Amino acid sequence: MRALTWHGNNDVRVDTHPDPEIMNPKDAILKVTSTAICGSDLHLYDGVIPGLKSGDILGHEFMGEVVETGPKSTLRKGQRVVVPFTISCGQCFFCQNQLFSACDNTNPVEKQDASEKLYGHAMGSAFGYSHLTGGYAGGQAEYVRVPFSDVGPIVIPDGMDDDEVLFLSDILPTGWMAAENAQIEPGDTVAVWGAGPVGLFAVQCAMIMGAEQVICIDHYPRRLELAQKFGAKIINFEETHVREALMEMTGGLGPDAVIDAVGMEAHGFVVDNVLDLVKQKIAPGADRGHALRQALLACRKGGRVSVPGVYGGMLDKWPLGAMMEKGLQIRGGQTHVQKYTQDLLRRIQEGQIDTTFLISHRLPLEKAAEGYKNFHDQQNEWTKVVLKPGMAS
Amino acid sequence: MAQETHHDTADEAQRADAAGTAQRDDAPKRTRRDDKDGDLAIVGRSVTINRPRAELFSYWRDFTNLPSFMHAIERIEMTGDRRSTWTVKAPVGQTVTFETEVTGLVENEEIGWCSVEGSQIKTSGHVTFKDAPAGRGTVVSAEIGYEPPGGDVGRLLAKLFMAEPNIQARHELKRFKMLMETGEIATGANHKSDRGDD
Ligand SMILES: NC(=O)c1ccc[n+]([C@@H]2O[C@H](COP(=O)([O-])OP(=O)(O)OC[C@H]3O[C@@H](n4cnc5c(N)ncnc54)[C@H](O)[C@@H]3O)[C@@H](O)[C@H]2O)c1
Ligand SMILES: [Zn+2]
Ligand SMILES: [Zn+2]
């Protein structure tokens, strides 16, 4: 089969790999019909997440048709399913408490050692990501093996397009959980850093959860325009002093909740960020946290900080004092996708959430490398890329 | 000021520990800085498994099941109610065989075993099963004693497949948990020809 493969920093290619096989009783194999490139993939592309090996197949946002099932899979051949990017067993303490991304049983034991050292606990697992989280082959491919297929995949009702439901795999539930972690109350102003796919869904979800005002911060006009479509006010950080603007737009109080939908590769030519950048170039494991620092300083006293943006290692100059002295609450985490998929599918069906507005490009799988390059270099115009293995190239 | 006080206390505790006068804490032996038990080194791990105690006990009690999650063991044959023959993998496709005997057995609570006198490998093991709080299942704690590198066979084995006995013990317990909770052991491999193991 053909698959998008990582070969090194800023070097991904579509190569030929053997088709996956059923390895365990609960496995299923999908023929992929649609798969997206995520901001998280850009962290891999840039080599700032440790634990990738040359030859790894990427992709954790995908859907397709079931073509093979293990004896204990609950799926049937021919079903159309969307697969959560987090692989979860459904049986452990964490899964049973709906903390699906913290699953204890899906990360192969040999792969657990690194995160046990780095984070104090072994991490759960995900498709097409680092070997810290399982080293599972991803779905930017013609076929993908789906372990624990009895827990994750959701069957899609007939008549719904791939593009309407594909983002149930990650960014829609991630935007939802980001807004949920902001614990929105009536009258709240929620500030969202990043108008990428995650930030844009966080804006939409915060509105649905009843925020009085949502303010989105980025520097790409086209992305900010998309946030505006959903009723957000916007701040372009290249033109405006962000913290001052937020204070003025909230009557001197500061936002009640802040969401960092940027993650470890914040843009911006400011002192802290340039220092972080230098460290990140020297070794992976250093995070670039300008957006998060700014969010912590902007958040009102006693406010809430939600962190869907991915960080993988260490961050210097972390304003711990701001957190303690202002009494902030911080919540984050890889999304517990399985917790949200059914509810969000219903909201899509009812027309409450728009899921297709952000797709700027649809490409055949063969052009995946071009998709990565442009999603990375031309963020203003390339807002979300969906790869279609079946599309003629 | 506060920092200095802290420093003094830590130093004092360390000195007391070295002199052997410190009060023993509640931590299990395998987490002590001095983790020797006689001439055996102790490694081990606790895991909480979301299954009933009796089910876990009876799976472990049948030693022929152990190779399903202890991948360094090729097979175990019961030669009597308390005795079994273990065949473990050794370098370059070779195997080493030794006899073990059950030394302690409390139904649904604990199992202990030990290599018999004169075995090629000296090892002992002990596993306990306790109810976890608030219906979280069972806390399984295993401790394995092994001969630290030294001796002829011992040195070879330690180097090649017991190099990291602590990691190995941790992996084994986690595989046991996976198997008991989900019925399978997770693998990131996509092909039967390259099932990755440690
Ligand atoms: N928690 C999860 O489970 C989860 C899931 C998916 C993605 N993520 C993470 O969410 C983050 C965003 O993902 P995405 O797909 O939207 O990525 P993206 O790269 O498309 O978007 C990031 C946006 O942040 C903007 N930005 C950069 N620096 C900024 C700054 N200083 N202030 C304000 N905006 C800034 C960029 O211009 C860009 O538009 C990434 O870190 C990704 O890894 C997390
Ligand atoms: Zn993603
Ligand atoms: Zn689980």
UniProtKB/TrEMBL annotation, chain A:
Keywords: Metal-binding, Oxidoreductase, Zinc. GO terms for molecular function: oxidoreductase activity; zinc ion binding. Residues 197-267 form the Alcohol dehydrogenase-like C-terminal domain. Pfam families: ADH_N, ADH_zinc_N. Its cofactor is Zn(2+). It comes from the Bacteria. The keyword DNA damage does not apply. Residues 25-153 form the Alcohol dehydrogenase-like N-terminal domain. The keyword Zinc applies. Belongs to the zinc-containing alcohol dehydrogenase family. This is Threonine dehydrogenase. The lineage of its organism: Bacteria, Pseudomonadati, Pseudomonadota, Alphaproteobacteria, Hyphomicrobiales.
From TrEMBL, chain B:
Residues 1-38 are annotated as: Disordered. Residues 1-15, 23-38 have a biased composition (Basic and acidic residues). Pfam families: Polyketide_cyc. Belongs to the ribosome association toxin RatA family. It comes from the Bacteria. Residues 49-157 form the Coenzyme Q-binding protein COQ10 START domain. This is Polyketide cyclase / dehydrase and lipid transport.
